[in-house]
Amino acid sequence: MAVIPRSDPPPRIHPQPQPQPLEQTDHFDRLPDSVLLLVLNRIADVKSLGRCRAVSRRFHSLVPQVENVVVRVDCVISDEDNSSLSSIKPPSAASSSFSAVFSLVVGGIVKPLQALGQLLGTTSRSSSLSTSGEIEQGGVTHHSPTQVLRNFDEILYLRIELPSGELGIDEGVLLKWRAEFGSTLDNCVILGASSVIQPSPMHISQTLEAPDASEDNGSIPESFYTNGGLKLRVVWTISSLIAASARHYLLQPIISEHKTLKSLVLTDSDGQGVLSMNKDQLEELRVKPLLASSASKRTLVPALNMRLWYAPSLVLPDGTVLKGATLVAIRPSESNKDVSDANWVSSAFEEPYETAAKMLVKRRTYCLEMNSF
């Protein structure tokens, strides 16, 4: 009997289960708008916020609600025409020598102030600005910070950073100023030194072992008046006030358009000058007419009371030496606030210059006055 081999049935082929597509979930949709606004406010930088706005419709609607905005200007290249500021003239009551100093100051900062005016204005035909707005070359109109900020509806805290300060100073010279404005100057503090010597172990040792107090008895030495020291400080003071009043004048469009502002700071990457306005000062400018010079594009500065502190040599705790260290505190003559109040004067700057200011205000005080200009 033949045995027929048994063949197994062919295996059944079962279709493999296909992987289910992953659910495409936008996790940002789970976050409430209030949380997203917290994140966007931490970003603050207007360029980054502009990119965020292009991400989605939701981001596009949220970015205008950001309350904390920082505008960093990359560069400003002005043309050679400085006619817009050519009419700045010294006060008529000034002496001939003072007029010469004033002309020297103005001549040194005309072009930077003109560039600043083009920067903060709405348009410019012959300068080039690079910021969060569109960049165009060849004399084509570009966006300014004023235009860029119109994309925001509820700014509370605004900081604008310029690429550099307006005041050209020699290498090694220290010049810093901080000013507060309402409708006009509220106060200004200026810190300067004819030279800055950075700390080194040898220099610190020499300073500690052999201090030179021959020309430092707390009074300003006679050489300060004869070697041009006083004239140089006058230049520093006037130029700082002009730079501050020019920044204030050019901020008017931004202040008037953004009525929610509580704090406004206009500074520069060099840390040379800082103009700040708090909520009350911003509101004062909106309510009280601004006294301005349309020819010079700056806010008029009223008559001033000034206090000056001077040290031929000032050694800071870290060993830095400020030669010819000078601190000037300025308030309007009509102000009822004490111009020599050490608290607001010494706290105007960050370290190590805050310590320098605190050391200077302990020295003898000299009173000065200046007419409005």
Topology:
Elements: H1 33-43, H2 46-53, H3 57-62, E1 68-72, E2 75-77, H4 96-120, E3 128-130, H5 145-148, E4 157-162, E5 174-181, E6 185-193, E7 195-197, H6 201-209, H7 223-226, H8 229-250, H9 252-257, E8 263-268, E9 273-278, H10 279-287, E10 292-293, E11 298-299, E12 304-315, E13 321-332, H11 342-346, H12 353-360, E14 366-370
Parallel strand pairs: 1-4, 4-8, 5-9
Antiparallel strand pairs: 2-3, 5-6, 6-13, 7-13, 8-9, 10-11, 12-13, 12-14
Q: Can you walk through the features of this model?
A:
The protein is α+β, with helices and mostly antiparallel strands and 373 residues long. The protein has a domain at 167-199 and 219-260 and 276-372. It has twelve helices and 14 strands. Strands 1, 4, 5, 6, 7, 8, 9, 12, 13 and 14 form a ten-stranded mixed β-sheet that branches. A two-stranded antiparallel ribbon has the order 2-3. A two-stranded antiparallel ribbon has the order 10-11. A hairpin with a 4-residue loop joins strand 10 (292-293) and strand 11 (298-299). Helix 4 packs parallel to helix 8. The longest helix has 25 residues, at 96-120. The termini are far apart.
